[in-house]
Design brief:
Protein name: Ribosome-recycling factor
Order of helices and strands: HEEEEHEEHH
CATH architecture of the largest domain: Orthogonal Bundle
Distance between the termini: 55 Å
Number of domains: 2
Strand content: 15-25%
Largest sheet: 4 strands, antiparallel
Shape: elongated
CATH superfamily of the largest domain: Ribosome-recycling factor
GO molecular function: ribosomal large subunit binding
Strand order of the largest sheet: 3-4-6-5
Radius of gyration: 22 Å
Subcellular location: Cytoplasm
Function: Responsible for the release of ribosomes from messenger RNA at the termination of protein biosynthesis. May increase the efficiency of translation by recycling ribosomes from one round of translation to another.
Helix content: 55-70%
Keywords: Cytoplasm, Protein biosynthesis
Length: about 190
């Protein structure tokens, strides 16, 4: 029964579970909250040099004021494509062009829009929980298969299943905490 190595297998489950939490945090960072945040522009891609590039590869994004984002475009010929990409990103931002710098005033969010954003944050969290549960399911199935093949005993299977469940529970707590913090930020409470 010694040919089943749980440590590398558990490390893979941890990596996948942490990946689900990290993906959620990345998704949440892109949600508008009514305050300027450079990560708001992370999903923006710009058509330049014949290909789609992330905004961060053609410009510097800074937050000089609480309600203003500044985008300093490195190449003067890319100012128009960057402006077009920001306008078409669906973020509700209207750039003001000043040479190679784009200023993005962050408008106030209506209460209705805040509630929509909070719902979106909740749906992102639910998707992340589903991803974490899928990792748990894969782990549990692998343990059952290993036990049926005689690679581990029933006692080892139960012990490993407990560890897999603890991993999932920790991920769900992290997901809930990240979503609650973002909803609080969005709703301004």
């Amino acid at each position: 029964m010694a040919d089943f190595e749980f440590a590398p297998w558990k490390a893979d489950l941890e990596r996948r579970t942490i990946g689900a939490v990290d993906a959620l945090k990345s998704d949440l960072a892109g949600l508008r909250t009514g305050r300027a945040n450079a990560s708001l522009l992370d999903p923006v891609t710009v058509e330049v040099y014949g290909s789609a590039m992330p905004l961060s590869q053609v410009a510097t994004v800074t937050v000089p004021e609480p309600r203003m984002i500044s985008v300093q475009v490195w190449d003067k010929s890319n100012v128009t494509p960057v402006e077009k990409a920001i306008r078409s990103a669906g973020l509700g931002l209207n750039p003001i062009t000043d040479g190679q710098t784009l200023r993005l005033p962050i408008p106030d969010m209506t209460e209705e829009r805040r509630k929509e954003m909070a719902k979106l944050a909740s749906s992102y969290a639910e998707k992340a929980k589903i991803a974490a549960r899928n990792v748990r399911r894969d782990g549990m199935e692998a343990l059952k298969t290993a036990e049926k093949k005689g690679k581990i005993s029933q006692d080892e299977q139960k012990r490993f299943e407990t560890e897999v469940q603890k991993l999932t529970d920790k991920a769900v707590v992290d997901i809930d905490a990240a979503a609650a913090a973002k909803e609080k930020e969005i709703l301004g409470k």
